[in-house]
Amino acid sequence: MTTNLRWRKSSRSGQDTACVELAHTRTAVRDSKNPTGPTLTLDTADLITAIRTGRLDR
């Protein structure tokens, strides 16, 4: 599934900054430092809800 995806980094991240990249489908993320590595498939709406409600806070 993830072989034909187009990826993008946040426009707020710097050129050399490692960050998470989001697939154009909004169903997969990956580590920008390892673009050929594994991807995480997820429901981004659920992820955004978890972030906004603080469920991922440490």
Can you tell me about this structure?
- The chain has one helix at 44-52; strands at residues 7-8, 20-23, 28-31, 39-41.
- A hairpin with a 4-residue loop joins strand 2 and strand 3.
- The protein has 58 residues and is an alpha+beta fold.
- The chain has a 4-stranded antiparallel beta sheet, with no helix packed on it.
- The longest helix has 9 residues, at 44-52.
- It contains 1 helix and 4 strands.
- The radius of gyration is 12 Å and the shape is globular.
Structure summary:
A 4-stranded antiparallel beta sheet has the order 1-2-3-4, with no helix packed on it. By secondary structure, the chain is of the alpha+beta class. Helix content is 16%, strand content 22%.
- Quote the average pLDDT: 85
How do the strands of the widest beta sheet line up side by side? 1-2-3-4
Q: What percentage of residues falls in helices of 4 or more residues?
A: 10-25%
Distance between the termini: 32 Å
Structural class: alpha+beta
Global geometry: globular
The biggest beta sheet is recorded as:
4 strands, antiparallel
Low-confidence stretches: none
Number of strands: 4
Q: Number of helical runs?
A: 1
User: What is the rounded Rg?
Assistant: 12 Å
Q: Strand content of the residues, in percent? A: 15-25%
From N to C, what is the helix and strand string? EEEEH
Set down the secondary structure blueprint.
Elements lengths: L6 E2 L11 E4 L4 E4 L7 E3 L2 H9 L6
Antiparallel strand pairs: 1-2, 2-3, 3-4
